[in-house]
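User: Sequence recovery, please. Input:
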């Protein structure tokens, strides 16, 4: 297993953030108000984060009966944000507006973008999406 590139008492990613107190403060606020709380249900955000991490159970969400239309719309948007911006067409936006208020779309989009960036950044540190060293 590769060693993480930065290690600290709160875990490698937080150790790096803590080197810049202002950055750590901004991250802590985002974590508290968007990642862990906010107006969009935490379970839906977790679902989108798992999709970004390419959880095998979620990669064929379109063919699964396990998701309702709100979840499917969120996963479609997550896919568009992460991998295929052309998928953010009028049809997707109609689906999103049918299931989400504007403020929810702003929060969910920010959550997805922030989570995607964090996952890529942590990978450069030798960490997985959960912040633990990659195996």
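Assistant: Recovered sequence (135 residues):
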């Amino acid at each position: 297993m590769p060693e993480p590139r930065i290690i600290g008492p709160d875990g490698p990613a937080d150790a790096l953030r803590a080197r810049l107190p202002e950055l750590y403060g901004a991250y802590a606020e985002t974590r508290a108000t968007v990642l862990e709380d906010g107006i969009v249900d935490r379970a839906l955000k977790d679902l989108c984060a798992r999709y970004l991490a390419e959880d095998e159970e979620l990669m064929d969400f379109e063919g699964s009966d396990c998701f309702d239309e709100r979840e499917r719309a969120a996963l479609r948007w997550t896919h568009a944000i992460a991998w295929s911006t052309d998928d953010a067409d009028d049809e997707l936006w109609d689906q999103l507006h049918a299931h989400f208020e504007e403020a929810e779309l702003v929060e969910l989009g920010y959550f997805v973008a922030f989570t995607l960036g964090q996952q890529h950044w942590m990978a450069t540190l030798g960490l997985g999406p959960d912040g633990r060293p990659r195996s």
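The two ends are 5 Å apart (CA to CA).
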